[in-house]
Amino acid sequence: MRRVSGFERPAVQWIFIALAVVLIVLVAGEAVVVRRQRAELNALRADNLNARLERQQLEIRFAREQSAREALSMEVARLRGSAAAPAAAPPTLTLTLTPLTTRAATPPAPSVEPPSAGEVIDLRLVLPRGAAARAKTCTVTVRRWSTGEVVWTRGGLPLTTVDGRPAVVARTTGDVLAVGSYEILLTATAGAGPSIDIAAYEVSVGPGH
Asked: Cα–Cα distance between 156 and 140 in angstroms, integer?
């Protein structure tokens, strides 16, 4: 076998050894960087999951507290009404909304006349196709369109039908839907897992629609 000319020189051999050491160091350094990046990514994923769980717990707690306040208010009103002359039941406004396909850059134009503060409103939210199979109980959250501030939420709502289509009905009052634009979020749970985003809806309350 023919020998490579000059390779038997110690200087050339040391050069190749140095190159091999440099390559080993580079590969080891790259492995350390990749390992650190994976650890940081896993930490970010864990933080994101914890934040989502905390937000869900806060929403559930807010819904329970609001339900308790509403139940107390209704009980107080019932006790007061039992001592007074019978009065006519407040009118009920039915508001049927279909899922939003694309969120526009500006709020929608007013489509609902401002209700009175004591007026009962039935929010009938029609589900998208195929969403009923993923939902067991639903939560409705009403928030302001521009700021995202939550103004009302109600959980534990069962599925029903509206005009033959799967839907969720949430009963609220006119003081929730004051003049302004709102985004309504519908989430659901299919068991013990995290909540599932089902659909979003929009409504704008104002005169002259």
From this structure: 9
